Amino acid sequence: MRPSKFLSALCSLLLALFLLTAAIAVPILCRPLYYAQIDALDLTENTGWDEETIRGAYDQVMDYLVGNAPFGTGKLKWSESGRAHFADCRVLFRLDFALLGVSAAGLLLLGALRWGKRISLHRFCGRSPAFWALVGMTAVLLALLCWALVDFESLFTAFHTVFFPGKSNWIFDWRTDEIILILPEAFWARCGAVVAALAFGGGALLTAVCEWLHWRRSPKSVYESAKLL
User: Fold this and answer.
1) Hey, which residues does 4 pair with through a beta bridge?
2) pTM of the predicted model as reported, rounded to 2 decimal places
3) Considering only CA atoms, which of 127, 121, 129 is closest in space to residue 7?
4) Which stretch of DSSP H or E encloses residue 104?
């Protein structure tokens, strides 16, 4: 069976998409990551609110973003403009979950076909699709990292310009939308670091496993192993 270059490229794309969307889903769904930042970023001291108030505000916003709960920010004030921005965020969060599901389904289908020997994936330059997914992700993540280190505020602004085109309601006034005080830029920078670490770490691990399995199955490795007996 002739290895398919198209399916191999598709597999790399799906792997990169899966790893990135899965990594993004972690800080969205894992609330203890935020709770840990309350002390790390001195939010109680900087805002004057106790930890219970901060947690309550965050939890209510997240219940709205990932579930069907009505919008609210606990004891903190919010405006219609702020609520509209979080409505846009909810669309993006659900888009991430949808892409995660689609990429996972696509990979499972390719895996089943590969396991059933109905398809064969081409190894570009002798490397697995996982390797090229890792290379593509690393290039993107390194570019974003360099941008963040040079000017994080510029990256933050560019992100919102791309994902919220034509809107300015993401620029919060703390006097009307107090939630912004418990979501400082430092928190978002740390979320970005978590996403990058998970995506890269997952890609590196998957690449190592795929390359090891290929080496184990190759005729050369079998021959070399036989010589050692």
Assistant:
1) 121
2) 0.88
3) 121
4) helix 80-115
